[in-house]
Amino acid sequence: MTNAPDINLSRVHDDHVGTQGARLLVDRVWPRGISKGDLELDAWIKEVAPSNELRKWFGHDPDRWDEFRRRYRAELDDNEEAVVRCLDWCRQGPVVLLYGAKDRNHNQAVVLRDYLRARRTGEDAA
Predict the structure, then answer these.
(1) How do residues 83-99 score in pLDDT, each as one tens digit?
(2) Per the count of CB atoms within 10 A, which of 35, 66, 96, 101 is most buried?
(3) Kindly report the CA angle at 82 between 57 and 120, in degrees rounded to 5?
(4) pTM listed for this prediction
């Protein structure tokens, strides 16, 4: 078990009062309806988001969720630089992964959080 700070999720449209941690936007495209000045980001790591091809294929269709997770994790395995950028933030303290999707259970931030937690746990075990 690790004592590492947690990785939380939040929609960009949510009220962020009381959320603690570095705020990382993990969408490839800027979320609609949000001005850049209003989001209060620590970083926008768009390179860690799913490829445009995968994002369009998925289309936030829950029926494609399992296959999306598999494909996105494969992309993350091949995207070490962006993953390391996220892990660097995670090593410093709590992190909030921000995303624009309406579906809170079927989006890339859910997959990324689990992926980062697993990688961090692997580091702790090494």
Answers:
(1) 999 999 999 999 999 99
(2) 96
(3) 105
(4) 0.90
